[in-house]
Amino acid sequence: MKSLYRCVAGLDVHRMLYVLTVLTEQADGSLSKQQRQFSGFQRDVRALVSWLQSLGVELVIMESTGIYWKSVYAALEQAGIPAHVVNARHVKNVPGRKTDIADSEWLAQLGRFGLIRPSFIPPKDLRELRLVSRYRQKLSQMQAGEKNRLHKLLDDAGIKLGAVVADIDGVSARAMIEGLIAGKPIEQLADLAKGVMRHKREVLELSLEGELTARHRLVLEHIQAHNRYLETELATLDTYLIKAMEPYRDYWQLLQTIPGIDQISAAMILIEIGDDLSAFANAKHLASWAALCPGNHESAGKRKTGRTRKGNHAIRYLLCEAANAARRTKSALHEKYQSLVARRGHKKAIIAVAHQIIRTIYVLFTRRHAYRDSGFDYQAALVKKNAPRWIKALKQFGYWPKLDSSAHPALIPAR
Q: Is residue 54 situated within a structural domain?
């Protein structure tokens, strides 16, 4: 097998240890091997980079071990040394022959002949923005958790406000909860309702009856304070992310034309996938990277499961959120959801809609035009595909009506 690189380094990454093997092909075709270990401190990382530069390394191969690869990858990128981060599952060594030295040498051997595919690594600016967007995602999840605790606390006290209002954190519900903490009478709390909630006064009074103890009020007060804090933090991060989208404005605006994707969702999706999709061969490749397409598990000619595999958890979460929002819009994405949910269930239908969205994003980015709803009627296509089978089953089991020609002379076939 012909080698693609003359000098390749394999890097086995740990938190406080970097193990390197450098394979160099000599002029006579022989192969020399050099191995060294470095600590995880930045001083040692600089020494590692200098050693690789002195050897004239053309490519460095490393595993994507947690987050430990990121700092050394940034150092190699700054020094101008090409580096490939590979999936650890693709380069797993044989059990019983696994050591740090053996792993680094195996990585160098695979990289020397181009036998492994590099993972998608976005540019430095987007990698840094991922820190902000993923932290924002965690805060959003924390806020959702606090709202769930609020529901449970009120139910624990026998207060059924969450079953009456549409949003437990809405304007009316928030004012009523503040009144509960202050110990106001139920009649005064019902007067705090705004808008359409005013027509539910009687039901609101019934829902606000309960046994709210001093300890309930204590926890309730802390939950409300934490919710307000999280709202402030999220608003600050949203402002920062919107400003950070200025260099990517064209693609950011393209994303917002897709149903279910707003400004913040568009910014967070763009940060995850970047604005240059040339790393992905086609839309199917992008969907596979996001783990939003059916998996393959076939043996002896039998397909065992189509479960999706693990992928980029952040982009998967964002696209499923967008799919949940898109199913409430008047669009082809809504029609696709409706055509699948009855027979596949909500979760699988959402994954299918998210799959459609990620493929749509690829088309928009490569063709540079806004989203135009196809208006495709998925329900009609579903009926057209399955109607003959349904009719046959109805006739077989006696549910198909038998027409009386005397009662319906217009239905008698012409001769």
A: yes
